[in-house]
């Protein structure tokens, strides 16, 4: 009986940035729970591989090459969901990122781009999908944030600012879109992805330092994020306006990247 509440059969999820890493893991778990997944990425081969994997496992999915920062692209994504499945129940705003740059070296262009990448993309996709969710009388929007919104990280001032903005957007949307649509965010710590592994490989011993600085002494598993997204997508879920910290218990930056003082 309890597990039946987590069955997402019949629901349709849009997951942005689903070609790799966190977004891919979330998309796969939502599909395992029964949701049809419309996955997006800017690289065709990446999103095609994600959706092919979902279909091989018996799930349903559609791959759309799109830039979540583009409203026309977002409109195409939502149109694909409606054309193929006739509805949108779940939106996971996963895209985002930044480049390392010390505070005094960040350009205006880089700062604005990081904000658009992390926040404007979520605003656009949420506005487009919320119209359909509101008409249907239900929906769940999940924004993927970061622990950097709670504590600063050297050389990531733009990213920290943007993720803080994403959490503010989460709270604002949650208040305005209730009671039909629930809006929550998941603030991540360090997760085992190809991208992170590539960075760790360039710094021998960095994984051990990162684990030592994390109370649970390990990296996160992207499938765990997917399971939380399943809960947040269940129709009886009572959570909205919440920021869920899934970070192994960190209370400060656990990055092993050495950034010297000025």
UniProtKB/TrEMBL annotation:
Enzymatic reactions: a (3R)-hydroxyacyl-[ACP] + NADP(+) = a 3-oxoacyl-[ACP] + NADPH + H(+)
UniProt keywords, alphabetically: Cell wall, Oxidoreductase, Secreted
Chief place where the protein resides: secreted
Molecular functions per Gene Ontology: 3-oxoacyl-[acyl-carrier-protein] reductase (NADPH) activity
Compartment(s) of residence: Secreted, Cell wall
Protein's GO biological process: monocarboxylic acid metabolic process
InterPro entries the UniProt entry points to: NAD(P)-bd_dom_sf, Sc_DH/Rdtase_CS, SDR, SDR_fam
Sequence similarity: Belongs to the short-chain dehydrogenases/reductases (SDR) family.
Protein name as it appears in the record: 3-oxoacyl-[acyl-carrier-protein] reductase MabA
Organism: Mycolicibacterium monacense (Mycobacterium monacense)
